[in-house]
């Protein structure tokens, strides 16, 4: 029976072998899996260090986030077959998963947090999504739902509210109706939600009663998130264009490279095993042409008094003073607030990271970059200098990824050599 239910979920995107495997997991959740899933090393104990600015804050209600509920016996199976992150087996699933919905070409359609069910209702899963993407995600889920047994509902702000907690916030685990999960992304705090009548108003009242600090604003969360290099929403993660590895999903459990079929798997797995991810989303800082940043600055510093024109989304970033071929785009501006932002950067050109034996072309002493665009109203050409930073968590993850790729390459060469020797014999 479980196998039949599994076959109803995203039937067009999975093979029969994976259907049987998912059905067996649902049928016997109490038995241990042969292969342990690989949770992100940043998902729990290693996310205890936070920026100095974040330590001054307590909590913020995320009014730009919306909850979508999937309730029913097929909800877990459906999500497991649709997103690249591991959802099954349930006993090994993290409480909160940061992942995305992909299209058949392996491009990100919409990013989302998947919240594991509570003990009170083990069949109800919640998707936490950008409010501007909620209706499109509902259509995408309905398209693949087919006859899967679960109810789908988008919650209004009155029915469900989302909030973010910095680590020094008061403990809200004991507040009735409030669910809190660790944000799986590096250097982030905890995420929570409250579902019920007048959820947003009730949430603000309950947090205020438990916390001695005032509520902060969406912009505070925005700066904290961008400073640590994490993108969210359709503006920063361009729908149908962004790749999951370029958006860093592979470094905090958003992709499982060992699970069975899911929508968009082919290109994602091929890139992991044979390709080199040369571009990634990085935190950046804007600065004036006549006021350069210190050469030894290692992280973006938010300045609330800095007044910079905000570049449009996907504005080109290029090396200052470059001409001809050397002036080709080295990155794309994705969005920002004040002098802090995110950009999709070519790592070997805009940073000191070396991805291959060729090494990095970046010169820390001389290389400077600028984002340029044309004003839509005045048609005036504008530009502002920009510097990319590689957060320590991302640098370590990239270096470990390079080592793993090298180990896989050596293992393949060794296997090929052994096969050739067998053929000769």
TrEMBL record:
Residues 26-45, 400-425 are annotated as: Disordered. It is found in: Mitochondrion matrix. The keyword Mitochondrion applies. The keyword Glycosyltransferase does not apply. Residues 402-416 have a biased composition (Basic and acidic residues). InterPro entries: CAF17_C, TrmE/GcvT-like, YgfZ/GCV_T_CS, YgfZ/GcvT. Gene3D superfamilies: Probable tRNA modification gtpase trme, domain 1. Its main location: mitochondrion. Residues 278-393 form the CAF17 C-terminal domain. It comes from the Eukaryota. SUPFAM superfamilies: Folate-binding domain (SSF103025). Keywords: Mitochondrion, Transit peptide. Belongs to the GcvT family. CAF17/IBA57 subfamily. NCBIfam families: ygfZ_signature. PANTHER family: TRANSFERASE CAF17, MITOCHONDRIAL-RELATED. This is Iron-sulfur cluster assembly factor IBA57 homolog, mitochondrial. It comes from Lithohypha guttulata. The gene is CAF17.
């Amino acid at each position: 029976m479980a196998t039949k239910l599994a076959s109803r979920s995203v039937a067009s995107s999975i093979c029969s072998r994976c259907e049987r495997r998912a059905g067996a997991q649902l049928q016997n959740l109490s038995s241990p899996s042969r292969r342990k899933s690989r949770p992100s090393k940043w998902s729990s104990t290693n996310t205890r260090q936070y920026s100095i600015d974040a330590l001054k804050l307590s909590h913020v209600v995320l009014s730009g986030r919306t909850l979508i509920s999937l309730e029913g016996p097929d909800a877990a199976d459906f999500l497991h077959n649709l997103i690249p992150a591991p959802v099954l087996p349930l006993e090994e699933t993290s409480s909160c998963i940061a992942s995305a919905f992909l299209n058949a070409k392996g491009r990100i359609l919409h990013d989302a947090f998947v919240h594991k069910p509570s003990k009170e209702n083990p069949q109800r899963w919640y998707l936490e999504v950008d409010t501007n993407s909620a209706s499109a995600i509902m259509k995408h889920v309905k398209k693949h739902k087919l006859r899967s047994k679960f109810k789908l509902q988008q919650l209004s702000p009155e029915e469900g509210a989302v909030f973010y907690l910095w680590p020094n916030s008061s403990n809200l685990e004991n507040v009735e109706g409030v669910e809190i999960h660790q944000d799986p992304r590096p250097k982030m705090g905890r995420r929570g939600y409250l579902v019920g009548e007048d959820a947003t108003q009730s949430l603000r009242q309950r947090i205020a009663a438990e916390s001695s600090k005032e509520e902060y604003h969406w912009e505070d969360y925005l700066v904290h998130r961008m400073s640590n290099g994490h993108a969210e929403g359709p503006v920063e993660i361009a729908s149908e264009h962004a790749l999951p590895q370029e958006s860093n999903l592979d470094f905090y459990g958003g992709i499982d490279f060992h699970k069975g079929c899911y929508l968009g798997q082919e290109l994602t797995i091929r890139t992991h095993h044979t390709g080199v991810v040369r571009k990634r989303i990085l935190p950046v800082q804007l600065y004036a042409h006549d006021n350069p940043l210190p050469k030894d600055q290692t992280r973006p510093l938010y300045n609330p008094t800095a007044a910079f024109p905000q570049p449009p989304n996907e504005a080109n970033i290029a090396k200052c003073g470059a001409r001809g071929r050397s002036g080709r785009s080295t990155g794309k501006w994705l969005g920002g607030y004040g002098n802090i932002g995110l950009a999709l950067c070519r790592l070997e050109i805009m940073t000191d990271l070396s991805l291959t034996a060729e090494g990095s072309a970046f010169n820390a002493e001389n290389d400077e970059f600028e984002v340029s665009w044309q004003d839509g109203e005045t048609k005036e050409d504008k530009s502002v200098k920009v510097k990319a930073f590689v957060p320590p968590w991302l640098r370590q993850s990239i270096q470990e990824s390079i080592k793993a790729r090298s180990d896989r390459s050596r293992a393949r060469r060794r296997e090929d050599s052994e096969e050739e020797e067998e053929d000769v014999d």
